[in-house]
Prior knowledge:
alpha+beta, four-stranded mixed beta sheet
Amino acid sequence: NADLEILRQAAQQAVMNGGKVLLINQRHLLTFGELPGVPLETDYELVFLMEMAMAGNAEYLNAFHTDLQNHRFDLIISEPLNVQYQGRLRSFGEENDAWVEQVSAPLLCAYQPLATLETAGVVLYVPGPNRCP
Length: 133
C-alpha cells in the first residue's frame, strides 16, 4: 500500500502539472482504477516494445527514442532497467540484448530514477539530462 501511494502521488502530480505518464508495465493499475485521473498512454507497452525491439522495427523504435530524448513523458513507470548485455550463449540472451539496446539504454540516457519501489518491483523514472550520444 505504501508503494502504491507513492506511485499514485507521483503520477497524479505529473498529470496535475500538465505532463504525461507512461506505464511501460503495471498498466493494470489503470484498469482497476488505482491511478485516478491518469490517462492511458497507448504507445510503448512492455510486450509491444519487446516485439518491436526483437523485430528491429526502426520506424517504431526511432519514434520511441525521439520521445525519450524530447522528454515526452514526465513520469515513466517501469520495472527496474539496467544496461547488462548477456550475449547469445545465455538463455534468452538475444532477447535481453535487444531490450537493453532499444529500450533500457535509450531510456536511461534520457531519464533518471526518482524512486525505487522495492515491494512493487517498480522504478519511477523522470526526465534527466541527456547523457548519451
